[in-house]
């Protein structure tokens, strides 16, 4: 038997400390998510409903199958900026007529659903997920277009949105637009470039230029209905494939469109899922806020993988990295999980071989981050840590099997890259609420700057300002600490969301199921490995 035998002491004081810290961090995340759910606030929502309209999340709830889960993506986008948390759009994975789809829903209660730079980044990320995983894309449209004061950050990169819509269609990935309200200017191209278009009679307004712009540009006086109403687009322009009597009817038609797609998964079917032998509730006490304290990632895996069953690869070699084969909700996976934080040459070589094996067997990879980076020092530089780390990064970069990353603890330096951080295009990336990611730890970064400043003062022959140095170190530590927490990183869409540790198995299972919508295959080759 390869079932992992847990030795986690749930009665230990340290377990209770970790659990309290994680629950406190989760409470902060929940409060911020509540801000996103609130949209533009009570008055804006009441005004919206007063017009006989549903909110973005109500539309999604009607769209997806009854009692099916909705995995919301990037709910904290724009956190810490001048824009509303959530970035005036809701994105996520949902099941519609038994078909897994990516849903993008504008939130018209936030500045009329106008798109700001974070709206664009969040939407493009959702479309990337649809493209990479071969998932139909459903757009629930009601937006006033670009947030004009920020046009310099939207207009030029925003063209990618329309490009990607057409590329989805060209790749045979269906795109469906349900238009509930305004879709003006560039926003008109969302239905214009979608495969299937449904418009709500009396509600949808789709035009490149509204009445004021048309009058300024041409002198023509026209009303909204004649310029872009659903009735006109259904009878005259032909832009609308279906005209719905109301919003509920539009969602009904959208569901029927998906039902008629004849969509089939192209990836491997999972085996029957077997629950872990250990309680997922115990994941709250495994990792705390002090990321310098190591933990055994097998204790996490024992509460995530099917039957708590792990087949470890090279268990005695490179022990700071656990590599193992397992299943999650019946899906085959290879797991790379940091054990003691630091990656040495042995760990890098072990990871490289494991990634190659996963590609040879077309097995998706799950990366569980808790690393301070690759080891430094004369002994390790002479031992080839650069070229061994480069081998691992080469393997990650050129691997073609799907990757999923979860930041459990620290994710610092090049270790973040080697463990498939955001720049390495994992299909999905999530973070636990106490995780941190940066070029290095706050104290280490401040210390490096202090050493450099001290050496500079000595070379100039000038006295070193100890008080100024202490103030600088405190300020830098505070800055890096604030910029390395999950809410800051999630606000910039550097992950796909902060998840409750207890939901890790469910989230990974949903993502693996979505990934299986497309083919799963390995790479035929890699770059040059330096010996």
What descriptors fit this protein?
2-enoyl-CoA Hydratase, Chain A, domain 1; 3 domains; alpha/beta; 19 helices; 531 residues; 7-stranded mixed beta sheet; 8-stranded mixed beta sheet; 17 strands; single chain
**The CATH topology of the largest domain, please?**
2-enoyl-CoA Hydratase, Chain A, domain 1
CATH domain class of the largest domain: Alpha Beta
Overall morphology: globular
Q: Helical amount among residues, as a percent range?
A: 40-55%
Round the Cα radius of gyration to an integer and report it.
25 Å
Task: Briefly summarize what is shown.
The chain has 531 residues and is an alpha/beta fold.
Topology:
Elements: H1 13-37, H2 42-50, H3 56-63, E1 70-73, E2 89-96, E3 99-106, H4 117-133, E4 137-143, H5 151-170, E5 175-184, H6 189-192, E6 196-200, E7 205-207, H7 211-218, H8 224-228, H9 230-237, E8 242-244, H10 247-259, H11 297-301, E9 311-313, E10 321-328, E11 331-338, E12 342-343, H12 345-360, E13 365-371, E14 373-374, H13 378-382, H14 385-398, E15 403-412, H15 413-418, E16 428-431, E17 436-438, H16 442-460, H17 466-483, H18 486-491, H19 504-515
Parallel strand pairs: 3-4, 4-5, 5-6, 5-7, 6-8, 11-13, 12-14, 13-15, 15-16, 15-17
Antiparallel strand pairs: 1-2, 2-3, 9-10, 10-11
What do these coordinates show?
By secondary structure, the protein is an alpha/beta fold. It has 3 domains: 38-259, 2-enoyl-CoA Hydratase, Chain A, domain 1, CATH 3.90.226.10; 280-439 and 485-515, 2-enoyl-CoA Hydratase, Chain A, domain 1, CATH 3.90.226; 442-483, no CATH class. It has helices spanning 13-37, 42-50, 56-63, 117-133, 151-170, 189-192, 211-218, 224-228, 230-237, 247-259, 297-301, 345-360, 378-382, 385-398, 413-418, 442-460, 466-483, 486-491, 504-515, and strands spanning 70-73, 89-96, 99-106, 137-143, 175-184, 196-200, 205-207, 242-244, 311-313, 321-328, 331-338, 342-343, 365-371, 373-374, 403-412, 428-431, 436-438. The strands form 3 sheets. Strands 1, 2, 3, 4, 5, 6, 7 and 8 form an 8-stranded mixed β-sheet that branches. Strands 9, 10, 11, 13, 15, 16 and 17 form a 7-stranded mixed β-sheet that branches. The protein has a two-stranded parallel ribbon with strand order 12-14. The model has no long low-confidence stretch (mean pLDDT 94). Pfam families: Carboxyl_trans (PF01039). Residues 275-517 form the CoA carboxyltransferase C-terminal domain. GO terms for molecular function: ligase activity; transferase activity.
